[in-house]
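Exercise 7b. C-alpha coordinates:
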Protein backbone atom coordinates (compact mmCIF):
# COMPACT_ATOMS: atom_id res chain seq x y z
CA UNK A 1 0.00 0.00 0.00
CA UNK A 2 1.24 3.48 -0.82
CA UNK A 3 0.75 4.70 2.74
CA UNK A 4 3.64 2.47 3.81
CA UNK A 5 6.14 4.56 1.83
CA UNK A 6 7.28 7.99 2.89
CA UNK A 7 8.70 10.11 0.10
CA UNK A 8 10.22 7.66 -2.34
CA UNK A 9 8.07 5.13 -4.17
CA UNK A 10 10.41 2.44 -5.54
CA UNK A 11 9.87 1.04 -9.02
CA UNK A 12 9.38 -2.41 -7.50
CA UNK A 13 5.89 -1.33 -6.38
CA UNK A 14 4.80 -2.05 -9.96
CA UNK A 15 3.64 -5.61 -10.64
CA UNK A 16 6.21 -7.29 -12.87
CA UNK A 17 9.17 -5.21 -11.69
CA UNK A 18 11.11 -7.31 -9.24
CA UNK A 19 14.72 -7.16 -8.04
CA UNK A 20 16.30 -7.94 -11.42
CA UNK A 21 14.33 -5.45 -13.50
CA UNK A 22 14.52 -2.96 -10.63
CA UNK A 23 18.30 -3.25 -10.61
CA UNK A 24 18.48 -2.65 -14.36
CA UNK A 25 16.28 0.41 -14.03
CA UNK A 26 18.33 1.80 -11.11
CA UNK A 27 21.53 1.33 -13.13
CA UNK A 28 19.95 3.74 -15.61
CA UNK A 29 18.90 6.32 -13.02
CA UNK A 30 15.31 5.15 -12.59
CA UNK A 31 14.72 4.47 -8.90
CA UNK A 32 11.26 5.87 -8.21
CA UNK A 33 7.84 5.74 -9.83
CA UNK A 34 8.07 9.44 -10.65
CA UNK A 35 11.24 8.76 -12.67
CA UNK A 36 9.73 5.69 -14.33
CA UNK A 37 6.75 7.58 -15.75
CA UNK A 38 9.08 10.08 -17.45
CA UNK A 39 10.35 7.35 -19.80
CA UNK A 40 8.78 5.82 -22.90
CA UNK A 41 7.74 2.16 -23.19
CA UNK A 42 10.43 1.67 -25.87
CA UNK A 43 13.15 3.13 -23.66
CA UNK A 44 12.12 0.97 -20.70
CA UNK A 45 12.01 -2.14 -22.90
CA UNK A 46 15.53 -1.43 -24.11
CA UNK A 47 16.83 -0.83 -20.59
CA UNK A 48 15.34 -4.01 -19.11
CA UNK A 49 15.97 -6.39 -22.03
CA UNK A 50 19.10 -8.51 -22.31
CA UNK A 51 20.38 -10.95 -24.90
CA UNK A 52 18.58 -13.71 -22.99
CA UNK A 53 15.37 -11.92 -22.06
CA UNK A 54 13.31 -9.69 -24.32
CA UNK A 55 10.95 -7.25 -22.64
CA UNK A 56 8.36 -5.80 -25.01
CA UNK A 57 7.27 -2.16 -25.12
CA UNK A 58 3.73 -3.45 -24.60
CA UNK A 59 4.79 -4.96 -21.30
CA UNK A 60 6.58 -1.81 -20.15
CA UNK A 61 3.51 0.23 -21.17
CA UNK A 62 1.54 -1.73 -18.55
CA UNK A 63 4.21 -0.81 -16.00
CA UNK A 64 3.76 2.85 -16.90
CA UNK A 65 -0.02 2.59 -16.62
CA UNK A 66 0.24 1.09 -13.15
CA UNK A 67 2.88 3.58 -12.02
CA UNK A 68 0.71 6.48 -13.19
CA UNK A 69 -2.33 4.98 -11.41
CA UNK A 70 -0.38 4.68 -8.17
CA UNK A 71 0.94 8.23 -8.40
CA UNK A 72 -2.57 9.59 -9.11
CA UNK A 73 -3.93 7.62 -6.15
CA UNK A 74 -1.26 9.13 -3.93
CA UNK A 75 -2.15 12.62 -5.15
CA UNK A 76 -5.84 11.97 -4.42
CA UNK A 77 -4.96 10.72 -0.95
CA UNK A 78 -2.78 13.75 -0.28
CA UNK A 79 -5.63 16.00 -1.41
CA UNK A 80 -7.99 14.24 1.00
CA UNK A 81 -9.56 12.07 -1.66
CA UNK A 82 -9.21 8.79 0.22
CA UNK A 83 -6.81 6.31 1.73
CA UNK A 84 -6.87 3.57 -0.93
CA UNK A 85 -4.11 3.28 -3.50
CA UNK A 86 -6.69 2.25 -6.11
CA UNK A 87 -10.43 2.78 -6.19
CA UNK A 88 -11.03 -0.66 -7.70
CA UNK A 89 -9.09 -2.31 -4.88
CA UNK A 90 -6.13 -3.35 -6.99
CA UNK A 91 -3.77 -2.31 -9.73
CA UNK A 92 -2.84 -5.57 -11.42
CA UNK A 93 -2.78 -5.07 -15.20
CA UNK A 94 -4.53 -7.55 -17.47
CA UNK A 95 -2.42 -10.46 -18.59
CA UNK A 96 -1.23 -10.46 -22.18
CA UNK A 97 -0.57 -14.18 -22.13
CA UNK A 98 3.04 -13.61 -23.24
CA UNK A 99 4.61 -13.20 -19.82
CA UNK A 100 6.14 -16.68 -19.76
CA UNK A 101 7.99 -16.09 -23.02
CA UNK A 102 9.08 -12.57 -22.13
CA UNK A 103 10.73 -13.31 -18.79
CA UNK A 104 10.93 -15.93 -16.11
CA UNK A 105 10.05 -15.14 -12.52
CA UNK A 106 13.78 -15.24 -11.79
CA UNK A 107 14.33 -12.34 -14.20
CA UNK A 108 11.60 -10.22 -12.63
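Sequence design result:
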Amino acid sequence: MLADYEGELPVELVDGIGPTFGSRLRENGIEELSQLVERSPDELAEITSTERVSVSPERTATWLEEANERLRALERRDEGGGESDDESGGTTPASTGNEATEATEEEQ
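Instructor comment: The longest helix spans residues 57-78. Helices lie at 19-27, 33-36, 41-48, 57-78, 99-102.
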